[in-house]
């Protein structure tokens, strides 16, 4: 039994569900069938996002960050996964039980997604104008001229100097930063209630990353749009997100305000991630890494999933720790978290 997402333990890190809640994932578990078994990719995850919030999910590869985000819009391939527990409520709608037509109605209009590689997200054979107008007119009742005017305004909001010229370009004629700004403009084109950004700056250099995130956050504040930001980059999350969830092996191991989680981490995994940052190493010094590998999620997880890699593991770690309050609005799934206070 997974106790880390019981109502009594989850409300301390996030506000209780209100009409302002745009995304409410409760105790979600997902598995992917494989030959003679299943990969239990998501294990009792709870994530809640309110209107206008910017919330991050961080963790190394294989922690189920993207699977959780894709399930929020039900973009996982139909018939290839099974929800074994929990619920996903998006803008008051039950995502798990919704018909595909219902999901088509809200994707793009009420909820948008920004993918990490704009060159594959945009059609290389069509000009930017055609792609933007198609999305706008699909979700907004407007003429072609009105849609074009909106596209120009959106590109201008993204600090693109000559929007009309850019509309006539093909994606491969533009830089990575320019393409990503176009994707962000598309995401905001229908004034969505929430945007899910899955590592949207991975392919960009550091300077362009910051510019893109600043533009995204400014636009979101203007519209009151919430953002779910998926990343492995703790530095970006620290600058961009109001709250953060740290995931490991398909579970949330720490959650709370970004300043608290990254400034006073209460889980050994979060502390290990922070120690592995390049800026923590002296010139010429080897970068720290986390020994071991993530567990095999096709096998049952017994006890704390991080225990085999944790230098502080003790006998009690053979039992799964709940996600519990360790400070105001701050939770950690570690038996010994409070001992670090």
UniProtKB/TrEMBL annotation:
Q: What is its main location?
A: membrane
A GO BP annotation: transmembrane transport
- Entry keyword annotation includes Membrane: yes
**What keywords are annotated for this sequence in UniProt?**
ATP-binding, Cell membrane, Membrane, Nucleotide-binding, Transport
Q: Which Pfam families match?
A: ABC_tran, oligo_HPY
Location relative to the cell: Cell inner membrane
As for membrane topology, the entry says: Peripheral membrane protein
- PROSITE patterns hit by this protein: ABC_TRANSPORTER_1 (PS00211), ABC_TRANSPORTER_2 (PS50893)
Please provide one cellular component term from the Gene Ontology annotations of this protein.
Answer: plasma membrane
Q: Which InterPro entries match?
A: AAA+_ATPase, ABC_Ni/Peptide_Import, ABC_transporter-like_ATP-bd, ABC_transporter-like_CS, Oligopep_ABC_C, P-loop_NTPase
Outline the extent of the ABC transporter domain. Answer: 23-274
Write down the superkingdom of origin. Answer: Bacteria
Report the GO molecular function annotations.
ATP binding; ATP hydrolysis activity
Q: Please name the NCBIfam families in this protein's record.
A: oligo_HPY
Family of this protein: Belongs to the ABC transporter superfamily.
Query: What protein name is recorded for this chain?
Result: ABC transporter ATP-binding protein
What taxonomic lineage is listed for the species of origin?
A: Bacteria, Pseudomonadati, Pseudomonadota, Betaproteobacteria, Burkholderiales
């Amino acid at each position: 039994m997974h106790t880390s997402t019981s109502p009594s333990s989850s409300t301390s890190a996030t506000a209780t569900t209100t009409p302002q809640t745009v995304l409410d994932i409760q105790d979600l578990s997902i598995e992917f069938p494989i030959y003679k078994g299943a990969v239990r990719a998501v294990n009792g995850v709870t994530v809640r996002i309110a209107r206008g919030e910017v919330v991050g999910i961080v963790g190394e590869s294989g922690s189920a960050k993207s699977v959780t985000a894709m399930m929020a819009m039900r973009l996982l391939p139909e018939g290839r996964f099974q929800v074994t527990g929990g619920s996903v409520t998006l803008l008051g709608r039950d995502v798990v039980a919704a018909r595909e037509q219902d999901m088509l109605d809200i994707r793009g209009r009420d909820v948008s997604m920004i993918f990490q590689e704009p060159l594959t997200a945009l059609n290389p054979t069509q000009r930017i104008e055609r792609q933007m107008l198609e999305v706008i007119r699909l979700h907004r009742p407007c003429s072609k001229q009105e849609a074009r005017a909106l596209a120009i305004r959106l590109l201008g909001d993204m600090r693109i100097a000559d929007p009309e010229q850019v509309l006539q370009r093909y994606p491969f004629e533009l830089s990575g930063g320019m393409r990503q700004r176009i994707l962000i403009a598309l995401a905001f084109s229908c004034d969505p209630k929430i945007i899910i950004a899955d590592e949207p700056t991975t392919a960009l250099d550091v300077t362009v990353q910051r510019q893109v995130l600043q533009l995204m956050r400014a636009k979101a504040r203007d519209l009151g749009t919430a953002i779910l930001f998926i990343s492995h980059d703790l530095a970006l999350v620290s600058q961009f997100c109001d709250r953060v969830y740290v995931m490991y092996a398909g579970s949330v191991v720490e959650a709370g305000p970004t300043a608290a989680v990254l400034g006073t981490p209460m889980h050994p995994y979060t502390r290990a991630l922070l120690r592995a940052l390049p800026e923590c190493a002296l010139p010429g010094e080897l970068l720290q890494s986390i020994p071991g590998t993530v567990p095999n999620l096709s096998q049952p997880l017994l006890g704390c999933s991080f225990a085999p890699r944790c230098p502080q593991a003790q006998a009690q770690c053979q039992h799964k720790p709940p996600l519990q309050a360790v400070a105001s609005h701050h939770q950690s799934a570690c038996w010994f978290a409070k001992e670090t206070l």
